[in-house]
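Module 6 notes. Inverse folding takes a fixed backbone as the condition and produces residue identities as the prediction. Think of it as a translation problem where the source language is geometry and the target language is the twenty amino acids. Below is one complete input and output pair. Work through it position by position during the lab.
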């Protein structure tokens, strides 16, 4: 039998401000070399479970634990703060939350310093992990200048440089373009075969992992373990079909727009227009300039050249907490004051925020934070909505509801520009696609002309959406 290295026995966990437990009576063990995934609805406690395995909780949140946690055969409470973290390394859902230093090399060196690795050994280990993760060319790059997906790869490199026995991954594919995500899974498969590294991951989009995992732990909305079973490959989510209704008026006109920051050109001059009610997906490789584009369209980044004419924009950022201004989810969604109470209530219900209406926006899960930001912008009723990775961290029910809300609003005349790596969502929702690569706009295409163009998709690190054939008639 394989050796059990992590074990939970009748575990329950409650945050100090909550009346009910986030996790309830959970028991399972993880064996050395196992590849296990934790699944379940958004907000059910999946990330909390990871943080109990790496000892981040309960010490850093004053939560209460009932039951037993054994790490490598010892009670978790026997480990001093930080003692376990070189053996159990973590890649967090939001990579920004774990960076302390300015450059990639500095961050890797800082990790080794915390492990008291001799200076003379650092160069070899840094070079090796950069080669392993394909990040050698970014060694001296400022981390905050990187895209969300590239930051995720840097965070993974920082975890691996510790040479851990267990790697905890919190939705590691959520910010990766489809091609890079496929490469990541292939690379992780090869790495695990070579090292017998134990991998425990939290994931919603299981179809992207193929046969990587051996076992699945499934939680329900109450934080209870409902399934512990062999993993079987998953099919992608099939969204409803939609018919677009574009209005002839122009909602957004961009002419000769470019962005240069600190002498680095992030976007070369580009031009395009968008009709009222049009849903445009912005797609391309990690670091290609997609987020830079939407930030410039809402004036977060000042254009270096060009003009932007729009009916008025709202923005849902990749890190939704940047928007939050109030003390409860309810107040956050209603903050704009431009919608009546009935509409606020409807948005809260449809996006499953009513159950957390009195929670602080910073105290909820990543997926829930994103839905709060989306609800707030929909409540604000801006004519043009810019959304950066709105599907990240969402379960199937939330994705389908998001699809229906966007579809409904577009028919009412709201225009959407959506940055996403979720090809199935993109194929179901998009009227047109803006393709960007290396800071240059390849072009704006009708959606139907993109999904079967393998050369175009491959050159932009995209994969053909699964099930796209069923949209053929609606595209025709």
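Target side of the pair, the amino acids:
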């Amino acid at each position: 039998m394989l050796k059990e290295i992590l074990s939970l026995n009748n575990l329950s966990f409650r945050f100090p401000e909550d009346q009910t437990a986030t996790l309830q009576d959970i028991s399972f063990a993880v064996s050395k070399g196992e590849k296990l995934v934790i699944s379940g609805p958004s907000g059910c406690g999946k990330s909390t479970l990871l943080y109990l395995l790496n000892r981040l909780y309960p010490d850093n949140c004053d939560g209460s634990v009932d039951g037993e946690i054994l790490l490598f055969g010892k009670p978790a409470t026997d480990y001093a703060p930080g003692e376990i973290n070189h053996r159990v390394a973590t890649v967090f859902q939001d990579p920004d939350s774990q960076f302390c230093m300015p450059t990639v090399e500095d961050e890797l060196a800082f990790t080794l310093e915390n492990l008291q690795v001799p200076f003379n050994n650092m160069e070899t280990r840094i070079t090796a992990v950069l080669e392993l993760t394909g990040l050698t060319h970014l060694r001296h790059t400022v981390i905050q200048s990187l895209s969300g997906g590239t930051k995720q790869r840097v965070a993974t490199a920082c975890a691996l440089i510790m040479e851990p026995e267990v790697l905890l991954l919190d939705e590691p594919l959520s910010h990766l373009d489809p091609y890079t995500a496929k490469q990541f899974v292939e690379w992780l498969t090869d790495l695990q075969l070579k090292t017998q590294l134990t991998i425990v991951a939290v994931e919603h989009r299981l179809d992207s992992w193929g046969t990587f995992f051996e076992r699945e732990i499934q939680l329900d909305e109450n934080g209870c373990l409902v399934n512990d079973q062999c993993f079987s490959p998953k099919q992608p989510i099939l969204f409803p079909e939609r018919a677009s209704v574009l209005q002839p008026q122009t909602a957004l006109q961009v002419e000769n727009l470019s962005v240069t920051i600190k002498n680095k050109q992030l976007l070369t001059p580009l031009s395009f227009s968008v009709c009222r009610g049009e849903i445009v997906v912005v797609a391309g490789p990690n670091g290609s300039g997609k987020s830079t584009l939407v930030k410039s369209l809402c004036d977060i980044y000042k254009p270096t050249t060009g003009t932007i004419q729009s009916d008025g924009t709202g923005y849902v950022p990749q890190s939704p907490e940047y928007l939050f201004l109030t003390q409860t989810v309810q107040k956050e969604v209603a903050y704009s004051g431009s919608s009546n109470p009935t509409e606020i209530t409807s948005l809260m219900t449809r996006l499953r925020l009513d159950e957390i209406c009195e929670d602080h926006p910073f105290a909820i899960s990543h997926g829930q934070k994103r839905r709060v930001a989306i609800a707030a912008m929909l409540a604000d009723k801006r004519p043009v909505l810019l959304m950066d990775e709105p599907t990240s961290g969402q379960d199937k029910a939330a994705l389908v509801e998001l699809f229906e809300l966007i579809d409904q609003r577009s028919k009412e005349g709201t225009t959407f520009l959506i940055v996403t790596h979720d090809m199935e969502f993109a194929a179901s929702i998009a009227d047109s696609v803006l393709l960007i690569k290396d800071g240059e706009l390849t072009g704006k295409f009708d959606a139907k002309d993109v999904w079967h163009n393998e050369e175009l998709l491959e050159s932009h690190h995209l994969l053909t959406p699964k099930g796209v054939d069923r949209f053929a008639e609606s595209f025709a």
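Reference fact for the lab report: The radius of gyration is 22 Å.
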